[in-house]
Model the fold of this input.
Amino acid sequence: MQIIPLEKPLGAIIDGVDLRDTPNKALIAKIKQCIHRYQVVIFQRQTFNAAQQLSFTKALGPVRKRKLPENYVIPASSYDTPGIAYVSNIRDENGIPTGVIPDGEMWFHHDTCYTDEPDKFTMLCAITVPRSGGNTMWCNMYDALDSMPTSLRQKIQGKRALNVYDYATIEKPNLQNLDQLEKAWQPAIITHPTTGREALFVNRLMTCQIEGMSLEESSSILEQVFDHAEKKQFIYEHHWTVGDFIVWDNLSVTHARTHFKLGHDRRLRRSKVSGEKLN
Ligand SMILES: [Fe+2]
Done:
């Protein structure tokens, strides 16, 4: 196994690993170390199938399987391999979606931060990619916090923040329906459970309120925090190639998708490792 760090604010390529065979314990330990160090790791030219991806995911930790809202569309192809989901805009011959592709993905977010135990790792394998666009961006939340002006940091230090996800909306959740939405309070700054480093843990898509502040005051502060965190210098943008398999540390990065043209196909295979309660 060879590790090639990217010349970016985060990321590394792991070469020399064929994920059709689940790596042994020693190699898995090295891969985990690499994910925690570089935050986003890229395996290239992978040809593994859904069951093999699931086996690799299980080797990294307990696979995330969560209860979804009743009206949530689960593509038929995901039933074959529970724990695997497809992020796709492609429809089958009957016009049925073969995956989900929420528009909210275009805003930076931490996966499932609106639950008590946000995902630890998220991973995507590129099956079909558009000719242009549909890139994924990751934002380094260690660096974003380290470089935050002290006056701004003080406003969120030691505070919890409310994260909400509204499956029905494409942008910020509709807070009129707060009772019916999935939500969780998380520390605005977390101590990463594995690395022990402090990371910013708020995001534009889901974070709505800071503990002890009105929605109005919260949003004025949060806007400043998001504008700071999403500066170019903290972001790595990946142009997908078929066979790319990317695993990221969901607690130390946010991610977002870029736009791609209607009519262009995009299909990624996703799996996740469950996380734990944060502090
Ligand atoms: Fe996501």
